[in-house]
Amino acid sequence: MRSKKTLIHAAVDINQTANQFKSSIVLVMDNKVVDAKSMLGLSNSVLTSDFFRLEIYGEDAEEAKKAMRDVFLSNGLPVEISNK
Length: 84
What we know:
By secondary structure, this protein is α+β, with helices and mostly antiparallel strands. It has helices at residues 4-18, 39-48, 61-74, and strands spanning 24-29, 32-35, 52-57, 79-81. The protein has one domain (4-81): 2-Layer Sandwich (Histidine-containing Protein, Chain: A), CATH 3.30.1340.10. It contains three helices and four strands, in the order αββαβαβ.
């Protein structure tokens, strides 16, 4: 199990990465939808979930998908990116 401090650090990394893009980046987990650019929602979600699905839409979506996948994986968090 990952420590709370490590998960908070992951939330900061995810938030900072998401905010580099114009695209909408939302995290879907446990019947909740959270804006990855919102530190408050993201912090609680990273602390309470074991698996994450991202939905990314917008003009720089392809670049955002790669960067978001990389930041999740570098923090040891499982992620699926929706291709809707």
